[in-house]
C-alpha cells in the first residue's frame, strides 16, 4: 500500500481528493465538521514536509453548474481556523484561477478548489477534465474513502496521470487497515450485527459475512422479512415479500456454514409509525395486524449483549430499530453500549454505514469503539467483496 508516510513532499504540490461533503444549514454554516477534521492529519503531514496542498472535493448534488449553496467557499474560513493558516480559494476547479493559484503556491500553502461537481465531467469520469486537474500538481493523494466506490474523475481517473506519484492519505490508510481486521485478519469469535431498513440493500454483505463471521445478528426493519420467511406473523412491520426466498436461502446457508444466526425473539410494536404511537412488547413472530415492529425487545437486547460480550471482532452496520424516534432508540443504544463494553475488554469493533455511525455519534460513543468508518456505500461495497475503483487506481 503506497501511503503518504512513504513519501517526502518537500517542494511538491500535492493534489488531495478529500471528502468535504459536510452538512450546511440554511445560513450556510457547517453543522458537522468531522469530515474536515478527519482530513487535517494528511494535510499537515504534507505541509510539515515542506510541500503545498491543493484540496478538491464535491459538496452536495448540484444539478446544472455552479450554485452558491454548494460552493466550497463556505468551508474556507473554518478550514483556515482548523489549520491555523490562510486558505486560498480558486472559484473554478479547472479554470484559469485554479491554474494561477496553484502555480503560485509556495511550500506550506493551501489552496481549496471550487466544487468539482459544478462540472458534470466529474461524475462522468471524463478524462480531459481529470487531466486538467492533474496538471495542477506533482503528486496525487486520495483521502476520500467515502467516494472510493465511484469511478469519478477526481477519485479514480486522475490517478492515471500520476503513474509514479499516487498515494493513499491517512483516512484511506486507516479505513483499509481497519476494514481488513473485519474482513481478513479477524480474531474469533467474530460477531457481525446487521440492522437497518431493508434486506434488499444488504444481501451481498450478509452473504459475504457468512464466509467470515461466527455469529450474525440480524435486526432492524429487515428482521421481519426473515421472521415472515419462517412462517411468523409480522403485522404491519416493514417486510420485503420479494425477498422471502432470499431470506430462506440465507438461513439455510448460515446453517450449512456453521454461522449462528440470531434474530430478535421479542419486539417493541407500535400502532403507528410515530414517536407518540401506543406501544407494546410482542413476540417477533406474533405481531398483531395493524401493529408494526419498531425496536428490539428486552429479551433480545439481553441475548445480543451476551453474544457481543464474548466477541473478539465486531462489525456493526445499521440500527436495531427506528432510532431516530426517541421512544424506539433503546435497542440501538443498548447494542452500542454492549459493543463499547466488549471493546473495553479488548475486542476490535468497527462501526460503519450511515445510520449506525449517526447512532454512535449521537450517543457520544464514537470515541469508544475501535473504528468508525467514514464510508457508507463505499464501506458496504468493499465489505461485499467488490473492488473499489478509487482504491484500485492507486494500487495498480
Ligand atoms: P439503513 O440505511 O438500511 O441502515 O437503514 C436505516 C433506517 O432503518 C433508519 O432510518 C431506521 O429508522 C430504519 N429502521 C430500523 N428499524 C426499523 C423498523 N423496525 N421499521 C422501520 N424502519 C426501521
Describe the structure using short key phrases.
binds adenosine monophosphate, elongated, 15 strands, 2 domains, 6-stranded parallel beta sheet, alpha/beta, 396 residues, 14 helices, Rossmann fold
Structural notes for this entry:
- The protein is of the alpha/beta class.
- The protein folds into two domains: 4-168, Phosphoglycerate kinase, N-terminal domain (Rossmann fold, 3-Layer(aba) Sandwich), CATH 3.40.50; 176-383, Phosphoglycerate kinase, N-terminal domain (Rossmann fold), CATH 3.40.50.
- The protein has 14 helices and 15 strands.
- Strands 3-4-2-1-5-6 form a six-stranded parallel β-sheet, with helices on both faces. Strands 9-8-7-13-14-15 form a six-stranded parallel β-sheet, sandwiched between helices. The protein has a three-stranded antiparallel β-sheet with strand order 11-10-12.
- Helix 8 packs across helix 9 (244-257) and helix 10 runs parallel beside helix 11.
- The protein starts with 12 loop residues before the first strand and ends with a helix.
Amino acid at each position: 500500500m503506497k501511503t503518504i508516510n512513504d513519501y517526502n513532499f518537500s517542494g511538491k504540490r500535492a493534489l488531495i481528493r478529500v471528502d468535504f461533503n459536510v452538512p450546511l444549514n440554511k445560513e450556510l454554516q457547517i453543522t458537522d465538521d468531522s469530515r474536515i477534521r478527519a482530513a487535517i492529519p494528511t494535510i499537515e503531514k504534507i505541509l510539515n514536509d515542506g510541500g503545498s496542498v491543493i484540496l478538491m472535493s464535491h459538496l452536495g448534488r448540484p444539478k446544472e453548474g455552479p450554485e452558491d449553496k454548494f460552493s466550497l467557499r463556505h468551508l474556507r474560513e473554518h478550514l483556515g481556523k482548523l489549520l491555523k493558516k490562510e486558505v486560498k480559494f480558486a472559484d473554478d476547479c479547472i479554470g484559469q484561477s485554479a491554474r494561477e493559484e496553484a502555480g503560485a503556491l509556495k511550500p506550506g500553502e493551501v489552496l481549496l478548489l471550487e466544487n468539482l461537481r459544478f462540472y458534470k465531467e466529474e461524475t462522468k469520469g471524463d478524462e480531459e477534465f481529470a487531466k486538467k486537474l492533474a496538471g495542477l500538481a506533482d503528486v496525487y493523494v486520495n483521502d476520500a474513502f467515502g467516494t472510493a466506490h465511484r469511478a469519478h474523475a477526481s477519485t479514480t481517473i486522475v490517478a492515471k496521470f500520476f503513474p509514479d506519484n499516487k498515494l493513499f492519505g491517512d483516512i484511506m490508510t486507516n479505513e483499509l487497515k481497519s476494514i481488513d481486521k473485519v474482513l481478513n485478519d479477524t480474531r474469533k469469535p467474530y460477531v457481525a450485527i446487521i440492522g437497518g431498513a431493508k434486506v434488499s440493500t444488504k444481501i451481498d454483505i450478509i452473504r459475504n459475512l457468512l464466509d467470515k463471521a461466527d455469529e450474525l445478528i440480524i435486526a432492524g426493519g429487515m428482521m421481519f422479512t426473515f421472521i415472515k420467511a419462517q412462517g411468523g406473523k409480522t403485522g404491519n412491520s416493514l417486510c420485503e415479500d420479494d425477498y422471502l426466498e432470499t431470506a430462506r436461502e440465507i438461513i439455510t446457508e448460515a446453517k450449512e456454514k456453521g454461522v449462528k444466526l440470531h434474530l430478535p425473539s421479542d419486539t417493541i410494536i407500535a400502532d403507528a409509525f410515530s414517536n407518540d404511537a401506543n406501544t407494546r412488547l410482542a413476540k417477533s413472530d406474533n405481531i398483531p395486524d395493524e401493529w408494526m415492529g419498531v425496536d428490539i425487545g428486552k429479551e433480545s437486547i439481553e441475548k445480543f449483549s451476551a453474544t457481543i460480550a464474548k466477541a473478539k471482532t465486531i462489525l456493526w452496520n445499521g440500527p436495531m430499530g427506528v432510532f431516530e424516534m426517541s421512544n424506539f432508540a433503546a435497542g440501538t443504544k443498548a447494542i452500542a453500549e454492549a459493543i463499547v463494553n466488549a471493546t473495553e475488554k479488548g475486542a476490535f469493533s468497527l462501526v460503519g454505514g450511515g445510520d449506525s455511525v449517526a447512532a454512535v455519534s449521537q450517543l457520544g460513543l464514537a470515541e469508544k469503539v475501535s473504528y468508525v468508518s467514514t464510508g457508507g456505500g463505499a464501506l458496504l461495497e468493499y465489505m461485499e467483496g467488490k473492488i473499489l475503483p478509487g482504491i484500485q487506481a492507486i494500487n495498480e
